[in-house]
Amino acid sequence: MEHKELNLLTESLGLHSNNNLYGRFVLVEDTVDTSAAFVLHHILKRTFSSHPSSSVIFLALSNPFSHYDRILRKIGCNLAAQRDNNRLFFIDLLMLQFPDEGKSNHNGFAAVFEKIERVIKALPQDNMKFVTIMIDDISFLEVAANGSSNDVLDFLHYCYTLTSEYGCAFVALNHRDIYLNEEKPDIILEMEHLADILVKAEPLATGLAKDVHGQLMVLHKQHGISPVKIHNFHFKVKENSIECFYPGTKI
Amino acid sequence: MADSIFRSLRDGALEGELAPTLTIKDSIASPFSIHIFSHILLQLSSHFAAQKSHNTGIVIVAISRSPSFYADLLKNKGLELASSSKWIHVLDCYTDPLGWKDKTRKSGNVNVPSEQIPLDATSYKSVKDMDKLFLAITDLGRGLVGENKSRFCVAIDSLSELLRHSSLQSVAGLLSNLRSHDQISSIFGLVHSDLHEERAAATLEYMSSMVASVEPDHHSSENFLSEKNFTQGKFNARLKRRNGRVRVLCEKFKVEAGGISFASVSAEDVTTVAGLLPKVQFNLQLSEKEQIDRAKVVLPFEHQGNGSPIQIYDGRKSLEESSSEGAPLSRGGKKEDSTLGEIIYFRDSDDEMPDSDEDPDDDLDI
To answer: Which of A3, A212, B115, B270 is surrounded by the most beta carbons within 10 Å?
Structure first.
């Protein structure tokens, strides 16, 4: 039962049969009230189990390795072992900060991008297709770039090009409410336009509830020429799993 | 709709006129402009592919989509890519817009996986420089159609990206240079209008002879449904003619697996109305006989008067009546007047006010 319910997220993302995220950009948006970090953890776990030669390049800006290691261990995935097997490339960017002198942001981001590309190129040719690039989270990139959203978008575009060049999956987390009330909500909209799949986590529209922690919307935008598809469901974060269900179906 | 837009893009401008320009606008609520863009691109390319003479071509400025996206698009349509190099060329501003990859490739001797794109593509590495971009586009076009009088069409897949990389002035400059270039027959481009200030969108609209905007279909925007496909939307187009006449078109479109189809709004509405009607149990329409009968019915008060003004008592004396009241004196006492009943009333005392507002029962002690 549990397993089937979990599949709602898996299914809506298109992870269930084969990992369909390859070649796409998944943007996960959350709010202060409802964190969507669990979506990243879920994708991370699925990625390692989906294909024997799959690998993940993780750009950590918000938490150290031990944090992810602990969480993933609870849901049944040993990150330390994956790292030792060269399947997880953990790039620690916690202290990332570019000098505040105008142009130099560019070189900084180019260097980070170069690091990612070097990892991909070092992989055997067959494994290149099964790389997932994950960023947690974009807002810290902006902090590192001294608030220059244009540079962040350039960086994201470059990461996005990897999805078509090598067929990688690109997953990034961002916070929605930090851009509220801004005159030009450029960066979040710009990213939404860029994304192929948009996952939005929001608090329950009807208020707080004990059994429902929030609602998720998974929006499949065009991939090639196809209709826009939308999934809506509720979720509950449990100690070592997530429960996803359609509104009103939980007893 | 799409036909008239397509025709003017295909035919291009008359000599000595600015090239017709189409701007396709969309927003995050209805991200279908790439569908429209691809639709037009496919129509144009199948037209050019069918032409024997090969004196026309398309230059795609790929900024937000990879060249392989366009290769797949053409392949899925069944166009032959082997001969495509004669009439289509991609200027690849997508893969390495700022030259980052170039730098790493120069510094380290890493093997570059040669991406197999069946389309001809030229990479371009400095998106921020609009003058260079203009030269690159025109050079490509000239390489495609030759130096002579033949012309080519330019497709820019994201003006929004250009606006992000560069100022509005320089993007407008690029567009106006492209429009006035004699070898360019037509231009079409995409813009996400919600990303820009209004003035940027307005500038682009001024510079284009046709503006198409994609809007969400409000019927299908119920917010919370567990699963839904968004396939429809409204397509509004504004076509400016040479003499300044403006034609506004409104259509609906539907995205299907095979592509996109257009339908006129009225036809759509008739079918939805027809689809709704059988659900009503009552007959809401009148037959012809019923309509005639209904017209014959005499409404209350209509039968009164017979030509003279109809008087409806509203509780007051009308002006007319009061003037005739004063008349009897002068008429010298007609007989009929004396037969009329009369009420003679004397007030008991002066302290009884006529029609006093006092409650007559206020002295009751209940």
So the answer is: A212
Question: How far is Cα B279 from Cα A160, in angstroms, rounded to an integer?
Answer: 50
Cα nearest neighbour of B72 on chain A: A224
B98 → chain A, closest CA residue: A154
- Chain centroid offset of residue A208 CA: 26
Contacts of B157 in chain A (CB under 8 A): none
Helix ranges (DSSP H) in B129-208:
130-145, 159-165, 168-180, 198-206
Closest CA to B209 of B240, B249, B175: B240
For residue B197, pLDDT over 70 is answered with: yes
> B34 contacts in A (CB within 8 Å)?
222, 225
Tokens of B265: 């709004």
Q: Which of B100, B164, B226 sits opposite A153 (nearest CB)?
A: B164
> Considering only CB atoms, which residues of chain A are within 8 Å of chain B?
106, 109-110, 113-114, 117-118, 121, 125, 128, 150, 153-154, 157-158, 161, 164-166, 184, 186, 189-190, 192-194, 205, 221-222, 224-233, 246-247
- Alpha-carbon gap, residue B296 to B277, rounded angstroms: 29
pLDDT of residue B330: 44
| H or E stretch at A116 | helix A104-122
At B229-241, the pLDDT tens digits run 777 888 888 888 8
Structure tokens at B65: 């989509």
CATH of domain B2-277: 3.40.50.300
Is the pLDDT at A67 greater than 90? The verdict is: yes
Considering only the beta carbons, identify the residue of B108, B115, B195 that sits closest to A189: B195
The answer to whether residue A33 sits within a structural domain is yes
Going by C-beta distance under 8 Å and a sequence separation of 6 or more, which residues neighbour residue B296?
none
Four-CA torsion B170, B176, B180, B182, nearest 10 degrees: 60
ipTM above 0.85 for this complex: no
pLDDT tens-place string over residues A138-182: 988 888 888 788 888 999 999 999 988 888 899 999 998 887 766
Positive/negative CA dihedral, A155, A157, A161, A164: positive
A83 within a domain of the structure (yes/no): yes
Decide if A225 is inside a domain: no
Specify the CATH number for the domain of residue A176. Answer: 3.40.50.300
Please report the pLDDT score of residue B260 as a whole number. Answer: 78
Task: Tell me how far apart the alpha carbons of residues B63 and B94 are, in angstroms, rounded to a whole number.
Answer: 4
Residues 6+ apart with CB under 8 A from A217: A198, A199, A200, A202, A230, A231, A232
Contact B31 A161 (CB under 8 A): no
Measured between CA atoms, how close is A114 to chain B, in angstroms? 7
| pLDDT band with cut points at 50, 70 and 90 for residue B327 | very low
Structural domains of chain A, count: 1
B13: left (phi over 0), alpha (psi -120 to 50) or beta: beta
Answer whether residue A69 is part of any domain.
yes
Beta bridge partners of A245: A234
CA distances for A189 relative to A27, A156, A182, B149, B363, angstroms = 11, 13, 12, 43, 78
- Check pLDDT > 80 for residue B47: yes
CB contact under 8 A, A114 and B104: yes
**Is the per-residue pLDDT at A2 higher than 50?**
no
